[in-house]
Amino acid sequence: MTSETAEPMPLPEPTPVSAPFWRALRQHRIEIQYSPSSERYVFYPRTLAPGTLADDLEWREIDGAGTLFTYTVAERPTGPPWAGALPQLLAVVEWDVGPRVSTELVEVAPDDIRIGMRVAPVFHDVPGEDVTLLRYRPA
To answer: Residue ranges of the ChsH2 C-terminal OB-fold domain (predicted)?
Structure first.
């Protein structure tokens, strides 16, 4: 596949509900929702708290520190836009505050990845776009 025919990388399209999350990432901060009535953080963004359906969700900043919950090393592209970005180090990180987030690992060799390892956020500003993606590296 040549670069002339490569598909562009898909980018997030913030919704009214998820916009605060994406806006904070653009500022190199992480904000997720918190439900005072259930005393827990919530992720992915939504309008009602899971379990209680309370409408008390508020946005709070977290430091993004966490632990690698699971991962996979994709040796083949997960789609045409990733044909030149192999291997893909796909991961799920469990934040210290509770929820998990799907992400990509960076700054680590596949052989050095370990479930349970401490990870730290990396803010990736997409060139030419007004979008920042949240990735993770070993802490």
So the answer is: 59-124
In the prediction, which pLDDT does 8 show?
83
Distance CA 26, CA 29 (A): 7
Tokens linked to 82: 């990733």
Query: Based on the domain organization, do 22 and 72 belong to the same domain?
Result: no
Closest to 57 in 3D by CA, of 81, 28, 34: 34
Q: Domain limits at 36? A: 14-62
Euclidean distance between CA atoms 85 and 93, whole angstroms? 21
Q: What is the DSSP string of 85-101?
A: S-SEEEEEEEETTS-EE
pLDDT tens-digit readout, 63-102: 999 999 999 999 998 889 888 889 999 999 999 999 999 9
Residue 112: CA count within 13 A, CB half-sphere: 10
Q: Which of 55, 60, 56 is nearest to 24 (CA)?
A: 60
Give this prediction's pTM: 0.90
Q: 122 and 110 share a domain? A: yes
Q: Which residues pair with 121 in a beta bridge?
A: 136
CATH number at residue 138: 2.40.50
